[in-house]
Fold:
Amino acid sequence: MRLPAKLTMLMAVLAVSACTNANRFDNGAVDLNAATGSAGGIVPGSASDPSSPAYFQQTVGDRVLFAVDQSSLSPEARATLDGQVQWLLTNADYNAVIEGHADEQGTRAYNLALGARRANAVMEYLIAQGIPASRLRFVSYGKERPIEICSEEACYAKNRRAVTIISAGLSS
Amino acid sequence: MKQVVAMLLTVLGMAVSAPMVAMAQSGPLRIEITEGVVEPLPYAVPDFVAESAGAQQLAQQIARVVAEDLTGTGLFREVPREAHISQITSFGSPVQFADWKAINAQALVTGAVSSDGNRVIVKFRVWDVFAGTELGQGMQFAGTPDGWRRMAHKVADQVYSRITGESGYFDSRVVFVSESGPKDQRVKRLAVMDYDGANVQFLTGSNALVLAPRFSDDGQRVLYTSYETGMPRVHVLEVGTVQSRILQGQDGVMSFAPRFAPNGQTVVYSLTQGSNTDIWAMDIGSGGVRQLTSAPSIETAPSYSPDGSQIVFESDRSGTQQLYVMSASGGEARRISFGQGRYSTPVWSPRGDMIAFTKQNAGRFHIGVMRTDGSEERLLTASFLDEGPTWAPNGRVIMFARETQGAQGSSSLYTVDISGRNLKRVRTPEGASDPSWGALQ
Structure:
């Protein structure tokens, strides 16, 4: 009885994580929302399933924001990360890649290094709260992958971010 | 890449009325670039003479590219062809100096082109119109028909060098990042082009994000950063075969901002381990590495002095990005930037006398130059976002990327003289960034 159920969930998880990877820079949330369906119950792998990456992204909160040229974690960021810690402790089958980003107000190489600082600030916090380092990796995109494209602080504030991307931890 | 030019440099054995003395040393036809030219020197380039059937079009095209090169420097002003009194119908005939004086052309470039379909020969002479003498000696270049632009650039380099006393920069190539797509889904590919934007060739596909290519001094190899493996890693690409390989593939670390040492054997780059970024050097043959900086701050954008003995780089160890110089073997670094704002992306000039940089101050970006000790800082540009200077082979011109503001913002390449004059956009088929100007070919 339990075995098939778990298998089904695993498959859903793999499908979602593949989708997340493929759409990492698009608005992948749209697809994930669509998976919620109208059945009313919890659809495994959908945003209503607390153990799904979609839930992590939308409900727990997958990103924290930073001040200009800073990589220190604000109280709000820590609160979000505490939620991430709880989720990652509960869902030990998953790994995470933390992506660091910068806004466009800076030179390319420096922004890569700054994005790495931000990603590592998150990674170090998660590790300090008990997530095994072996489950976490980081990468910086510097200013190469903005999600908001205006050249104003409203956009810059959202681009100065570290995003925790959940990946299936079954392989590697 | 195929347009190999066999450069004969043959002195033409023709009788010329005036003795062939080295005119570059003296005489009125001379531009002193160091004095900062305000009034460009008027010159004329009539269509080159077609000396074989079917060379007509090539003869015209070559003369036009020579004129574009010379006028493009801002140091020369072409007297339009409509104003010419004399026509050059034979390369060997005496020049009617009075006709060129009358239209105030101080320099005259005459040339001839012959082609048998497989091989093109371009001959030229430079004349000092007011002295009524030839400037330097007649010369010829030979090459394949598809290398005609290179031959034109070589002629222009000769004219430039005879009149300014400095080497030119026209027969050179630029490796850069070609950009397409909207700001939040930008596609970046490596590409190489002639200095003037002609002959663009792509070196990578659009599957992986690529950044900041850098030519080796011999132009045979390109270092760049690619996300092909998911992490930014330094790659090296052979231009001839377009084959690339990962140079720094260590697990769990990022490597970027690579640059060749003048010897072409050592590569210097940034390595990020955890939150810390330092500068490392690698012997490209053995793969042996050496850490050159070890500070908890960000050290990046290293660039060698032309003699290979020193490295200029940026660091935020003082709290903001500033420029530092250290020995090529690492160790103690000396800060050289002290003005307002942040300094980054330093690049040592090929002459060794200056360092170009990006400066951010009061919400604006600038390209600037300073002496290697940080003195005589001069800002050449100002815009919403200018970054990443690279030097022309003769150290007189800088190319950089300029990104426009807003949601529709895009990046283009520009050149500017180190005097701050003659700001010009380089024509590229798509958006463009991260230029690296190669040596004279």
